[in-house]
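quick one before i forget lol
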Amino acid sequence: MSVYKFEELKSVKLTPHLSSGTSPIIEGKYVYYCLNQKEAGTGSELHYHPNELLIFALRGKINAVVGKERKIVHPGTFILIPPNVRHSMKATEDEPCAYLYIKDCTWTVVGVSADEELPDKPMSVEEVNQKFEKGEIQDRKNKGANSTSESGNKSIIIDGVPNCYYKILDNIEQPYSVGNNITSIQGERMDFKFYELNKNYEEEQVKSDHEYFFYILDGTFKFKINDKEFNVDKSSIVKIQKDENYKFSNLSQKSRIVAINSNKFLESKIS
């Protein structure tokens, strides 16, 4: 399957002992693609994981901590969190939030509390939910990490974290600018690209160089993947496997789309 909508997929608790977040999960070979949703005033405790994390805020406001820096993040902001960096994402008290949540597949989507050393093997989402329901895992939500233990954790990165925040849009529904705008940000393992299109635009690859996920923020697009054609609209997700042929073009004059892709470094780590 190549085209999805999150609302048509089952949501699961990603890390039930550390976070209130629930999300559908679209799993590629190299990337987990999710929509993390949190009720007002809830979210994740300080934690980390050895996979890179990309976040793009869609609704509500996020009370975000990355390393030692805290910010209130509004829709339209992109966050790039390197592997093993301490972080927390909570909805502000006044409203729920939702954001695209993308991790590489070198580890599962299950995080590790900031005051715990990285285990030799990650738990799957199914495993962590089973253990949580049986009471085999301590519920850390609203209890926080122990700062003393956290400072002795050799796996986690807290200090010296550079800026991880990129304002792509001031407002997710702000007026369009003149002309086409394409903004790219390259991470260690995954790349992010934002397209704002006011004119006709077409992109094509024969034997795609990487795995891609496209999320339609606004407007309508036509995708051709190998020999199949799809018309997709707002909130649709299009998945392109590595080596698939694809082509897309905007059907509406005003359209916005967010893309992420694996890169060669990530692909070299996953056979």
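fyi The chain has a mean pLDDT of 95.
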